[in-house]
Description:
Elements: H1 2-10, E1 22-27, H2 33-38, E2 44-48, H3 62-76, E3 80-84, H4 119-132, E4 137-142, H5 148-167, E5 178-182, H6 191-195, E6 200-203, H7 205-213, H8 231-246, E7 250-253, H9 264-269, E8 274-278, H10 282-289, H11 294-306, H12 310-319
Parallel strand pairs: 1-2, 1-8, 2-3, 3-4, 4-5, 5-6, 6-7, 7-8
Helix pairs in contact: 3-4, 4-5, 8-11, 11-12
Bound molecules: phosphoenolpyruvate (PEP) and magnesium ion (MG).
Amino acid sequence: QARQQAQAAALPALSLDGKRLEVAANIGSALEAPGAFSLGAEGVGLFRSEMLYMDRERAPDEQEQFEAYQQVLLAANGKPVIFRTMDIGGDKPLPYLNIPQEENPFLGYRAVRIYPEFADLFRTQLRAILRAGAFGNALLMIPMVHSLDQILWVKQELERVRAQLQSQGLRYAASLPLGIMVEVPSVCYIIDHFCDEVDFFSIGSNDMTQYLYAVDRNNPRVSPLYNPITPSFLRMLRQIVSVAHRHGKWVGICGELGGEPRYLPLLLGMELDELSMSGPRIPAIKSLLRQLDSQACRQLADNACECRSADDIETLLADFAPQED
Ligand code: PEP
Ligand code: MG
């Protein structure tokens, strides 16, 4: 039976009618990588690099980071690995950065917003990722981006760091696809502009849900409202995918939504290109995907976007039977 499971894990993530939907893993450390691949991950869709910075006295240096990133790329054995640059500050404070406590950390000083002040820290991370990138298929992703200026600044820093590595004669990835997390709703209105500057998009549905509805993701009193399966969220998803595809860019989801079997028909129907989830969710998602017909799912997604309530969408989903193989 273990052999059967391993064989099933190795199958490509395709729907019944052969539509591709890459299934990748979210990981928080290099140690998690081999387990994720043995569960059938086709890549790492989100490496939460901030974990390397937490619970310690000072930031990891370039060499330590390089080794961690290289380890993941070697475990990936040519499969893609998306390194998200540090998503710290705000609710993930680091004592050594001395950022004062905030009343509203989720709306505060975090992720890409802190990089200009801590530019050395950011450059060190870019150096480590670029150097590790020479050992595999690495991609770079920036969290919490909301304006084009932020990504232009990042690209300028990347150029600087590349020039520096070049002049030092160090090995580094010559080309490294660059993407952004789509987790701040305003980004949805300027996806076309971002398409001119980045290679891919990954929707952070955890933060996107809280920001789209103004519902705190950690407040139990509003948790019934914290639901990404509503007409507004689905229409937003649809718009992001359609604009990105028109410009030849791919779109994934790396929030919890991506690993929910219940919602897989909808996400396939929305024509997403990749779903990234915690490793243990991968086998069930891949096996369900193999039972789904992408045309039927597309119709389901169209119908869901016309629903007037979350309950109506749930009813549609409950009535939707996967095809049998
Ligand atoms: C998200 O916001 O959906 C996401 C994947 O990032 P995190 O949960 O680490 O904020
Ligand atoms: Mg997030």
